[in-house]
Amino acid sequence: WGLLLLAAALGGAAAARCPSPCVCDNLRAHVLCLNGSLVAIPDSIPELTKKLDLRGNSFSVIPAGAFLATPYLTHLDLQHCKVERLEEGAFRGLGRLVYLNLASNSIALLYQESLDGLSSLQQLILEGNRIEEIQPGAFGHLGSLTVLDLRANALVYLPDMVFQGLQVLRWLRLSHNTLHVLGSEAFAALPALRRLSLDHNELQALPGEALARLDGATRLDLGHNPITYVAEEALAMASLRHLFLDHASLQDVAPDAFSRSPRLRMLDLRENQLRGLPPLAGAGGLARVSLHGNPLLCSCLLRPFHSWLARARVQAEGACAAPPALRGRPLDSLKPPEMRCGRLRPPLSPSAPTERPRAASGRRCPRGCVCSPDFRHGSCANRDLREIPWDFPGDTRLLDLRRNAFGTVPPDAFPGLKELVSLHLQSCAIRVLQAGALRGLESLVYLYLTDNLLSTLAAAAFEGAPRLAYLDLDRNAFTHVPAGAFQLLPHLISLHLQHNAVRELAEGDLAGARGLRWLYLTGNAIGHVSPAALAPAKMLEKLQLEGNRLVEVPTAALRGLSALSELKLSRNPIKRMGDSVFLPVASSLQHLYLDNMGLEQISPHAFAGLGPKIRSLYLESNKMSNIPNMSNFTGLEILNLQDVPFHCDCQLLPLHRWINKLNLRVGATCGSPPEARGRKVKLSTTFQTCPGWGRGETGEANPETTAASKPSKKKRSGKSPARGFNKSRA
């Protein structure tokens, strides 16, 4: 009896500690705090909790030691939480955690100690962030990790040994980034890797040297890369069985391209530009090759390949595109006499790309600095230097000069660094970046100038760095966008100008930035966006204007942005929203942030054109009493209506019904009439007096409980409905 009483007492104490926005299942040690208004990790989560789901909150920063009070966690879900930064030691104390999901946040950089303390972690999901760079050692403490998901980030470059410490990793997912530079030792520390996904990137050649380190990998995905040619012995992967090179730009493959991958069984070459192939005699174990979607010329020039298929008993999938008499004929149905030449000319094969010789690296390291030949990194951070040192090895890839006092970056400041990819100049009191300062940095991809004193940029400031793709100018002294400075940056993908003092986005400001995809302007003083200001950036996918002085949605400026998927207008003083304000981007928009604006009125047709593509909509902390009909927003994964004073009368009945049907926690509460104030719109009994009540209603006394207890008929990807939870509230 004593033990039973003690267990009951402990259970009661745990229930009493359940944070008020959360749902606690003490029997299974699960806690859900979904789609709420949390801005910090609750400090009253039961200590014995094993699974904690915090999706859809607003944490911004995960501070050091955030989960020290819950040391028994095994599963932690932080998707869609607007996380921008993981402080060093954020997950310290979670030695039992096996699953961590940080997908769909805004994390830009992984620091060396960001993931410290996760010694048991097996799955780490970082999909859909904006990670531009991974610092060496970031994964050094994850010795149990088997799956690492870095899909849909902003990676362009992988340095040597970047995955060091991942001794048991089996699947590395790097799809949907912008990778086009891989260090030769990028995958050197992955002895257990079996599957590597590099599809949907910007690789222009098969990265054979980097891939040769993967002796145990059996599947390689390289589809959707602009690779034009596979050279002799290009791929040396001893265990590789499945190779995907579909939807690339292949025009030719060398006969011995796969001779050093003897176990290759399946080769996917669909949707390329191949007019033919030579006999792939070096691929002795090949069983199947897929050639669907290629412009195959079934002439006498294809006979050697066709004969080899028969001799080697390789199954070929594909059909002829020419000559006209054979168009559409499957390859395996052809007979050699049918494959004639006549007057047809042989297809031209591009010559194999020649590898650029590596720069000499015999020079010494500058005095007081540290140079790592293994990583090809140089660092003079926090040395109180007044001038930029120049005596770095010529093969340096990453140069860290943060926290010095340079003041000015003179012309030709970085001689001999033709292989430099990433340059860190944060917090260096830089007022002037002189014309030609970056001259000679022909491989530079990342440039960090955060926390300096720059107020303008010369038109030739970026001369000599044509491959620059990521430019960070946050927290400087700009009062206007430095027009003309981007003319020399045709490959610019990401531009950060957050927390400056920019007052207007004017026509011509982004001239030359035709490849720009992500534009971050949060925390300025922008009161006007010219209708033509964004016209040069037709590929723009993300536009963040949070925390500015806009009084209306810049609808005219959105015209022509057919790829825009995320628009953030939070914390602008927009009081009223008229008809069709998002119509120019309605076909592409997926994430819309309209929170904390003091919004008082939304036109019934404000969301015209928007519908199933919208995945997340943030409307919390506004002042309107009703919202437009959104019944066609069938793809919603997040809807936040916290702190909106809804007037719960009969006009709100459609919203009440719609919310009841959603499998989401939206947080909508009544602000009036007085008898309904504070009640959830989903639960309010005010609507029972409305005409039509009872048609479409469930009839249960507690709709929320019913919705939570009935299994959903429609499966939703990535979401776990709160079924069967006992609600324990403080």
TrEMBL record:
Keywords: Disulfide bond, Extracellular matrix, Glycoprotein, Leucine-rich repeat, Repeat, Secreted, Signal. Associates with collagen and binds to collagen fibrils. Residues 17-51, 364-398 form the LRRNT domain. It comes from Tachuris rubrigastra. It is found in: Secreted, Extracellular space, Extracellular matrix. Belongs to the small leucine-rich proteoglycan (SLRP) family. SLRP class IV subfamily. Pfam families: LRR_8 (PF13855), LRRCT (PF01463). Residues 331-341 have a biased composition (Basic and acidic residues). Residues 294-342, 645-691 form the LRRCT domain. Potential negative modulator of chondrocyte differentiation. Inhibits collagen fibrillogenesis in vitro. May influence chondrocyte's differentiation by acting on its cellular collagenous microenvironment. SMART domains: LRR_BAC, LRR_TYP, LRRCT, LRRNT. It comes from the Eukaryota. GO terms for cellular component: plasma membrane. Residues 1-15 form the signal peptide. PROSITE patterns: LRR (PS51450). Residues 331-362, 690-730 are annotated as: Disordered. SUPFAM superfamilies: L domain-like (SSF52058). This is Chondroadherin-like protein.
